[in-house]
Amino acid sequence: MRKLLTAATLGLAALAAPASQAQEDQTANKIVTILATDQPQTQLMSMVLTMQSMQAGAEAYVLLCGPAGDLALKEPPESATAPQEPKGMSPQGLMQKVMEQGATVELCAIYLPNKGVGADAILDGVTAAKPPAVAARLLAERTRIMSF
Fold this sequence. Notes:
Elements: H1 2-26, E1 30-35, H2 40-55, E2 59-64, H3 78-81, H4 91-100, E3 104-107, H5 111-115, E4 126-128, H6 131-139, E5 143-147
Parallel strand pairs: 1-2, 1-5, 2-3, 3-4
Helix pairs in contact: 2-4
């Protein structure tokens, strides 16, 4: 009887290990935030969720495309810097905090040429994305993608 119980216990432990491993494998540890909207509330919420993901342990990458690329400008539109309720944060302000916490922020490769400005017009720490590197981030294991 003792041998049977030991065998059963070991069998259950063996079954539980793959299940816990599978659950761990499903947990993302990287977040890619793709932001393209010009809507300040959506821009701010994308940064809120990126920050929350970082605080939960995720490595964060933010890609700004189209009108959202204006968040990276040294002289952005007022909508990028206007404080919003409930905490008085702006989209650009929270983006900068996300960067301070270790997130990588890049602009779509076609943003600067189509905006008609050079790299000197964007905030320090923001760079132009390289499409092959972005694709690799999107396809990386244990990565979640948020798109706004």
